[in-house]
Amino acid sequence: MRISANQLRKIVKRTIAESRRHLREENTITLSNGETTTFGTQEHLDDLTSSLLSMKRMRDSSRRGTSTRMAYSQAVKTLQSQLRSAQRFFDKHYANME
User: Fold this and answer.
1) What angle do CA 83, 86, 92 make, to 5 degrees?
2) What is the pLDDT of residue 4?
């Protein structure tokens, strides 16, 4: 049995989506205060927001053009991406429960 390239793309895309969903649903997140929660809960969103604000303050206190500021900027971008992903997950799975 031969699988066309289009069918293979669909299979790979579905497998990746399922594995990401599984990881997020099963993933236990350790918050900055040491407590644990699951991905995308309100506690997780609050912790990410707090970390993002703190990282932005540290970035802004560094001089422009330095490697330190560049490292903080990369960390800010990563936290923003994680926050967007967690917010989408929260909106989809938890927002209707409140």
Assistant:
1) 140
2) 72
